[in-house]
Design goal:
Structural class: alpha+beta
Helix content: 40-55%
Distance between the termini: 37 Å
Radius of gyration: 21 Å
Order of helices and strands: EEEEEHHHHHHHHHHH
CATH architecture of the largest domain: Orthogonal Bundle
Strand content: 5-15%
CATH class of the largest domain: Mainly Alpha
Number of strands: 5
Strand order of the largest sheet: 1-2-3-5-4
């Protein structure tokens, strides 16, 4: 449960467990300001730790466009997805249950940390969730089912391109970080072209998502030799979402299982055994391909 307070135009919530015990605090800072960094992210003011006796104090930040004074505050579908994504990270932090802060919450491997956040995006269009927020700002009427279906279908548009560019970016990252320390200075354009050509991804119509000269993720944002993590965790999150769909969807029991077996574990066990304990098998790529519209439901 959440108890809302306001602080300087932003929102802070006290978060309580189902038995009323406090879990932590949650801050939301969603709108653009002139002195604010761009993008969207989650982090902690205070990390959870039984050793230190601390409970998590977590924040979600975004840069949504603020409505003009007197106008309704509307956000886009992409903004909604961003909110759900960052709140998935927040749940990972709020449900942390570790002794040591270095193993707590989102302090997990780079190719696992996006799993809870990308998984949480799936609930944005879930009928049980959508009916609570997707309403006409004047009449309060729920979003028509036909419009919801159009949004779902639009998500499949251009997915061949989208998958191609992120695979190319991940392979380019790996090529750069496979260079030995003894390698000479590289001609960036030539290296990039050779790297993509050697992996069969030098496709003029589908360039990598980022060119090497501005691929900030892999140079200063912690994703060196790890940009593949987005696709790897997408496979995990779609696989687990399919498990939820097959077991009754968004129920308290399913959510508690996910909390107990994934979100609360932090970095206290290997991720393969963690996933298999939850699902009962190794991850499967098929639900991800179905989600992207690259194979049919019948092909599962």
């Amino acid at each position: 449960s959440f108890c809302l307070h306001k602080t300087r135009g932003n929102s802070v919530f006290e978060v309580h467990d189902k038995d009323g015990s406090p879990l932590g605090l949650m801050y939301f800072d969603y709108f653009k300001r002139d002195n604010k960094s761009g993008g969207a992210w989650m982090s902690n003011f205070v990390g959870q730790s039984k050793l230190l006796g601390t409970k998590p104090v977590i924040y979600n930040v975004a840069n949504f466009t603020k409505a003009a004074p007197g106008q309704p505050q509307l956000i886009t579908s992409d903004d909604v997805t961003t909110m759900f994504h960052e709140f998935g990270h927040a749940l990972h932090g709020l449900f942390a249950d570790q002794t040591y802060p270095s193993l707590s919450g989102t302090s997990v491997a780079r190719d696992f940390v996006e799993f809870p956040s990308q998984f949480n995006e799936n609930w944005a269009l879930d009928p049980k969730v959508l009916s609570h927020y997707a309403r006409h700002y004047k009449t309060g009427a729920p979003m028509p089912k036909a419009l919801v279906e159009k949004i779902r279908k639009a998500a499949h548009f251009n997915q061949g391109y989208a998958l191609g560019e992120i695979v190319a970016a991940a392979e380019l990252d790996m090529k750069w970080h496979s260079l030995p320390a003894t390698a000479p200075r590289q001609d960036v354009d030539k290296f990039e072209s050779d790297a993509l050509n050697s992996t069969g991804l030098d496709v003029a119509a589908v360039p990598p998502r980022y060119r090497s000269s501005y691929f900030l993720h892999i140079w200063s944002n912690g994703y060196s030799a790890g940009y593949y993590a987005y696709l790897w965790t997408e496979m995990l999150d779609q696989d687990v979402f399919s498990w939820f769909q097959e077991h009754g969807g968004l129920t308290r029991e399913n959510g508690q299982r996910f909390r107990d077996m994934i979100l609360s574990k932090g970095h206290t066990m290997d991720y393969g055994p963690m996933f298999r304990a939850f699902y009962g098998r190794d991850p499967d790529i098929t639900p991800m391909l179905v989600h992207r519209g690259l194979v049919s439901e019948q092909g599962k």
